[in-house]
Amino acid sequence: MAEVAAKLMHAVQYENYGGGLSGLKHVQVPIPSPKKNEVLLKLEAAGLNPGDCKIQKGIARPLFPRKLPHIPVTDVAGEVVEVGLGVTKFKVGDKVVAMLSYGNGGGLGEFAAANEKLVVSRPPEVSAADGAGLLVAALTAHLQALTKDAGIKLDGTSQQKNILITGASGNVGLYAIQLAKLGNAHVTTTCGARNIELVKSLGADEVLDYKTPEGAAVKSPSGRKYDFVIHSSSKAIPWSV
Predict the structure, then answer these.
(1) What is the pTM of this model?
(2) Predicted confidence (pLDDT) per residue in 89-127, tens digit
(3) How far is 65 from 113, CA to CA, in rounded Å?
(4) Residues 178 and 198: beta-carbon distance below 8 Å
(5) What are the two backbone dihedrals, phi and then psi, of residue 37, each rounded to the nearest 5 degrees?
(6) How many other CB atoms are there within 10 angstroms of residue 164's CB atom?
(7) For residue 208, what is the DSSP state?
(8) How many CB atoms lie within 10 A of CB 142?
(9) Angstrom distance (rounded) from CA 22 to CA 25
(10) Is residue 71 a contact partner of residue 30, using CB atoms and an 8 Å limit?
(11) SS3 category, 100
(12) What is the pLDDT of residues 49-99, one digit of tens each?
């Protein structure tokens, strides 16, 4: 499909660090060609993360982005339209979710090239928007917080641990609740009043409104001592916790 790469696509990029929304420009650029072990995706959805904003501010330079101008965003969902040499797991027409590299980005374009190792099939029951919202948030909750740091086994064979999740109605918190319950944890959470029922519906055992004195103290209503805290809120919590 060399004719695809010869065409232009619409994208959003920035040319310099800083600038926020006003620094983003609508442009037309060549559609990327997939390299060895890469697939070319026609994008259907993209998920923005705090890291994308920090990279634009220049916090990660000189590591990310690798060069300017830069098309930001790494979490995407779409359809495979071309495969590079060495690709064995995917074919044209496959619906997938992919994580692009922070160095190259590309999520705010109509097409993007992704390494096969960072691509997974998307089941029909998972929408493109839901798939694109999974990657950084779910992997942070799963790999970094629960299984690596807290040592929880998601098959439920771990000894029960008491987990506190602050900011539980945010991206990381929503996944952390569900994964922690799979791992046989007792989960205490904090969130705003309007999200209490949502957090309960995901399996939280105890929910605290962070604006109340009890929520500010983040103490378990049942008097449990926490074995591990996933602090995904921007508010500070007492060291005594």
Answers:
(1) 0.81
(2) 999 999 999 999 988 999 999 999 999 999 999 999 999
(3) 16
(4) no
(5) 70, 20
(6) 25
(7) E
(8) 19
(9) 8
(10) no
(11) coil
(12) 888 988 999 988 888 888 999 999 999 999 999 999 999 999 999 999 999
